[in-house]
Amino acid sequence: MSAPSAESDTRPIAAYVASLELMKISSLLPSNENRSTMVHTLARALGLFSKDFSPTRTIALVPPQSAGFTELNTYHTKEYLDFILDPQTVANGSDATKAEFGLRDDCPPFEGMSDYVRLVGGASLTAVKMLRQPRCDVAICWDGGRHHAQKAQAAGFCYVADCTLALMALRRLTQPSPSPTAGPTVARKMRTMYLDLDLHFSDGVSHAFHQTSTGSPHLLTFSIHHAAPGFFPVSPLAAQPTANTDPFTLSLPLCPGASNRTFARAWQCVERVREAFDPDYVVLQCGVDGLAGDPCAIFNWSLGPNEGSLGWCVGKVVNEWRGKKLLLGGGGYDSPNAARAWAYLTSVALGEPLSLDTPIPDHPYFPLYAPSFLLDVPAGNMQDQNSDDYLRAVEEAFDSVVATIGERIAK
Ligand SMILES: [Zn+2]
């Protein structure tokens, strides 16, 4: 089809946060070296950045603004930022100080770390700013999704809590401002749902917003993940809901081998929570370390397109749910598969899903897509250990959660 002229183009906009600088700095992340470059390079090679890619939604490439101290300080502590944002301080810091800020083991200090924190934090905040534009209903930041970072510590390969910062920015954005002339504000306060599809529990985000108040919170976090004794990150909040659970801090743990079939059933719980909560904004963390073939080798999830696949779930959120959506990245330790997944999810978000038989186009990283050289990330042979009994227990746990959300929201 021919592209409409700029003036008559009324297609909704999907903002895609990317720049050469972001790609270079994000590619230095020790746990995912060069992944960012592969992700954005494949997306471009597949033609996703073309204005004519989809008749239903148009893409806008948006360079990230680097986050300043004040923006990062809305969540992170001054002490953490004073340390991590100054390469000289880090270079001269003692092992004890580095340990205090989590900069050891899986989060070693690295060259470019302070720029990384500013730029990746700023990238997700740039995505939130784009959602303020009336025509922009989807924003994508695959370099974000660092859901383990804490207020005063790096953790689990995450140095900046961009998900939490984005949620806080959305909360500020959605506070109804009292009108001086119209009397009391009648519009309801906006609601934001954070949904996390990463293999690992979203401890950084869930802990940041966990509350036990009996009020009617306007932010709900929901993490679907693997949980088992000793599996990172260990947290009491990673377990399935009980009668005492804060219904706005939800977890749905799955057993090894979780496949499309299991996710299709788990998704019914997600849909029921979404219906009860009725969010105006959805922040979707799309970690891809649960896909088959990831070195974590816990789940056996596939990219698409069948019911229960990652692409199917993301398509439900982006194209069927009400409200505006922010899509973030996350884990994913097979870089070619992460690039495949996020390129495919970008096409889903644009309303024009690519065929999973699409050949990987010739581009500088082509040889790394051996042996299939196709877009698909198919399921493997792992046995799905999520029994019918287990999933029925999960469904029953969510029955009461959904009822409680409904009661609280009605207040
Ligand atoms: Zn993960």
From TrEMBL:
EC code: 3.5.1.98
Top EC group: hydrolase
GO CC annotations, alphabetized: chromosome; cytoplasm; nucleus
Biological process terms in GO annotation: heterochromatin formation
UniProt GO molecular function: histone deacetylase activity, hydrolytic mechanism; metal ion binding
One family name in Pfam for this protein: Hist_deacetyl
Cofactor (UniProt): a divalent metal cation
Entry keyword annotation includes Transcription: yes
Keyword Ligase carried by entry: no
InterPro entries in alphabetical order: HDAC_I/II, HDACs, His_deacetylse_dom, His_deacetylse_dom_sf, Ureohydrolase_dom_sf
Gene3D superfamilies: Histone deacetylase domain (3.40.800.20)
Keywords: Chromatin regulator, Chromosome, Cytoplasm, Hydrolase, Metal-binding, Nucleus, Repressor, Transcription, Transcription regulation
Predominant localisation class: nucleus
Domain of life: Eukaryota
The protein, known as: Histone deacetylase 8
